[in-house]
C-alpha cells in the first residue's frame, strides 16, 4: 500500500478536485446525479449532508470563513494498493481514518471515493484543511514520512502486502517517462554524458563537451544547472553528487564561462597569435591591426602581412594571392573600411571596429562548432523536448500518426483562439461605440436628476448583461478547442477505435510483472480484439474493461482475463472472450470455487465448446454436458444473442 499527497496545482481548486474525485464534468453536473462510472464507493466524513452538491457547498462555506490564509486550503490524499489486493469497504474506511488521523485531519471535513479505472484499486480523499472549530488552515509538515510510517503499521494490522516505504521509488523524471513514454533531460545526460563529464579536467573542456550536444552548464543561484536551447534545465547535482558547485570548483577551480575561442585552439596557440598580431601592429593584442591617429580614430593598416585583399576598380575587395588562410581572414577584422554610397571611404572608430571583430569571431565560431561536431559528436546527439521517444515507441508506425495528430490539434487550437480574440476585439469595440452613443443621449436629455441616475443605472445593467452573454458564448466556443493528447492518451483513443496495434503498444508499456490472483482465466493469447458494442473502457496499461448492466465486470489484459465481479452473464462473456483470445487450447482457471462453478454452469448452459485444464472442472463439465445432451435443445436466450451481436473485431 502506498499513500501520498497529490502534487499541488494552481488550477486545481476545491470544485475541480471534488469533481475529479466523484468523476463528474463540472459543478452543474453534481445536481441530481450519481458519481461517474469509474467511481466505486463514496464516503462523506464530518459533513452534515450526504448529497454530492450539498457536501461541496458545506466545504466551501467553511473555507469562506477563513479569510486570512492565502495558502492552499485543500489536501488531496491518494491511497493505492497492489493489483491483486482489494480490501473490503469496512477495511478501507478504517485505513482512511487511520491515515487522516496520523497527519492531524481526523476532525476535518473530507470526501473519499474509490476509483476502478486502473488495475490498481486506489482511494482518493479530499480533505478540507480548515479546522471546523478553530477555522485555522492546518498544514501537515513532513507528511510523507508520517504517511509512510503509518502505512507500515496498517499493512501489519490488516495483513496487507508489504511495500517498500523507506524511500521514494520514482523520481519525477522516471514518472514522466513511464506515463508519457518520453525521455527526460536528466535521463539523456545520464545515458550519454555522465561518465564523460566526470573525465573533464577543466571548465572549458566541460563546456565543450556539453556544447557538442547543444547543452550548456551555467550558474543559477548558489549552484549549477545544465539546460538545453529550449530552456529545459536540471540541477547539475541531480546528475551526480560530483557535479555540485562546491565539488566541481574544488576539482576544476573557480567557475569559468564558456570561452568559444578556447574550444578549438590550445591556450598557447591563441596567446601566440595575439602576441604576433600585437607585434606587427605595434599595439597591444586587443588592438591588433589598428593604428591610432592623432584624432583618436583607428585606421586600417594596409600591411603586407594582412595583404590578402585589395580594392578593385569598382571599389570592391578581392583576393590577390589565392585563398587566404582562416587565421589571415580573421586577422583582417583588426581594421575595416566601409564604402559609403558616394564611394568615399569612412574610417570607423576603435569601438565600432571591435564590435565588427566580435561579430565576425562569433560567425567563425559557429562554423567551427558545426565542423567539430562531425568529429566529437558524429551522431549529432542532442536533447529535444517531445522528440526523444523511449524504446517502446521508437519505430512504432503509430508514433508518426501521433505527431501528425498533435500538430493538427496545435494548429486548430491557434485558429480557434485567434478567432475568439478577433471576435472579442470587435465586440468590445462595438460595445464601446454603443455605450458612448447612449451616454450622449442621456447627457443631452432634460431629465430630472433622479431620473437621469436611473437611466445611468439601466445603461450599466444593460452593458453588464451584454458582456455576460458574450462571455457565455465564448465559453461555449472555447469548449471546441481540442486538447493536446500525450502518447498514452493517443493510444487509448486509437484502441477505442479498434486499433489492435494501439492495444498491444499500451500493454507493452505496462511495467508490472505478471501476477496470479483470484477469478482469472489464463492461456496463450492468439488474437487481440475489442467488443465495441459493449462500450469498453481502455486503461493506461492497455487493459480493456467491460462493465455489464447487472454489475458484472471483466478485465481483458495481455495474457489473461479477470472477472472482477462475478455474475452469470459475466461468466458467459468471459468464456466467450477466452475462446476468441486463446483459441481451442484448454483454459487454466485460477480463483475461488464460486468462480469455477459459475464458469462450469455458463459453459454447460450455453453449450460452449471449451475445455478446462483443471481435470476436476473438466470432469464436471463433461458429465453435465452428457446429461444435457439427453434433453431437448433449448433456444438461446436474449442475453446470449445480445452478447454475440456485441462481438466485433
UniProtKB/TrEMBL annotation:
Residues 534-623 form the Large polyvalent protein-associated domain. Residues 257-267 have a biased composition (Basic and acidic residues). Pfam families: LPD7, Relaxase, TraI_middle. Residues 37-160 form the MobA/VirD2-like nuclease domain. Residues 171-257 form the TraI-like middle domain. Residues 257-298, 621-649 are annotated as: Disordered. This is Uncharacterized protein. It comes from Alkanindiges illinoisensis.
